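Render histidine kinase in 3D.
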Amino acid sequence: MDKEKEQQLLKIIRYAPVVLILFLTSILVLFLYIENKREFLNEKKDLEKKFYLQNANMIKDEVNRAYSYVQYIQENSEKELRTSIKSKAYEAHSIASNIYEKYKDIKNRDEIIEIIKITLDKIRYNEGRGYFYIIDEFGNMLLTPLDKEGEGKNYLEYKDDNGYAFVKTIVNTLNNKGERYDEYYWNNPTTNLSSRKIAFYKYFEPLNFVIGTGEYFDEYNDNVQRKVVDYLNTIKFGKSGNIFIITNEGVYLNKDEQLINSKDKFDSLVSARKINFQGMIDAANSKVDNFYKYEEKYANSNVDYKVNKISYVKALSSWDWIIGASFYEDDVDFEIIEVKKKLDKDFEQNIKDTLVGSVILIIFLLIISYYVSKYIEKKFIKYKEELSSRQALLFQQSKMATMGEMIGNIAHQWRQPLSVITASASGMLIQKEMGTLTDAFFLESTKKINASAFYLSQTIDDFRNFFSPNKEKENFKIVNTISKTLDLISVQLNTKDIFIIKNIQDVEIFSHENELIQALINILNNARDELINKDYEKYIFIDVYKKHEQLKIIIKDNAGGVEKENLSKIFNPYFTTKDKNQGTGIGLYMTQEIILQLNGEISVQNVEFNYNKQKYKGAEFTITLNV
């Protein structure tokens, strides 16, 4: 923690309790004053609000229930219609099949068709609106009960108002020996207007024609609406609540003696009311507030009395309906008549007592807060000193552990060049004693000795640079930093057959390079320790890239990952899953401390991934640094 943050925390410890006490006591005094002064008024308002909300919620719930019911009926009406006409078409198909089976051996084709026509011609359903028709493979209308003049005519090229030659579709269905739903416009004999018709027809194979039926959707929809209105008329709630329905044209639908297509206008039914009908429409279509308030006026020879009325309304745009319910706001008065009127009798004295008590309480709390702040401040300073001492010790332990590993690395890296030097020197000595030493062998041996000595010197420089106590920030390229890190521990990785897979962008950053190398070594050593005992191909993946002005360093292995319950503890000091003689538990803790000191972040998670067509699982460490 830097000094600036420490000073801020100390100021909070010293002054926050005082500020908090003054603030809370001021709020308390103000609250007591307002509460005593306006208790009666607040009680009355609470009663009014409670009554208003109770009634508002009641009419809202009732309207929403009615609205949901209508939506359900509306959304399912066409589906039910389709199911109905399909069922009827199947019934007609079954009737025709029975007739054919009965007469196929005793009558010819034309005679059987005539019997089927006579039978289906008289059948009606859906309150007389539904009937059946027959069309042959040439588009000839064999049966149309409501248009006898059309029977026998060919409609193959007929097109409806939208230019749809639906008879061709029927013939195609016949040729494919299938069945289907269809929609087209056909003249409604009731209104003598072209209307949308939903049809279903099915191929009748024995006589190679189609039996179909349908319903004019407008007629069916009107019938559904009548049933809905009848149902909504039965809904009653509260003292005299009911659901009302108005069209956008002002037609009042659920007057007792009126239904759909009523000529009574809402405006005429409420001629004595001051209501803006357009305002009600706007409220019904609102997505924020569907409540609409207006004044209702009752007049007779002696009394001219006005009351406020509140309605909750919702628009059903597909049917051009407004569904609503209402209540009278003035009913509140009957709920609050008995409210107590005397509340301020000792108000001034109470305020004085409150102020005196508050001053005494403030002084007492300030004294306590002063001593508590001092006590917390001392504890904080002592804890800070202990934490700094402990952290320094951990840094020293971590550094010593790293130094031990580095010395081991030096020993491994020196073994081979020392062997080369010894072998070359011994070879020259033996040949010299035997008198067979040649200039060529001498030159080759000295070159090997010089090369090995240079390698030993370079190794010393690498390790000396790593332990250099440079605390100044510097610019360095992350590619070089990764290379230095791997050079320092490459022997331990190579001897354990651990492969490094790198994908590194060439990014330059400004930071402490040696500290970052220390953190990377700790992570790589941790991965190495987990991979040592694995009997499959062992990998460590290093990905480095720049994203949104930040450097991401991602290191993952295929060692199987960290136990789920240990993920949250992995950066804790002295936490380790290794044997006591294999790990101290401070490596990853110090790694986190180093990254935090570099103003970065580090996290760990278990990941599953594929590499070389093999599926692996391992731990993934992510370091984020500002570029």
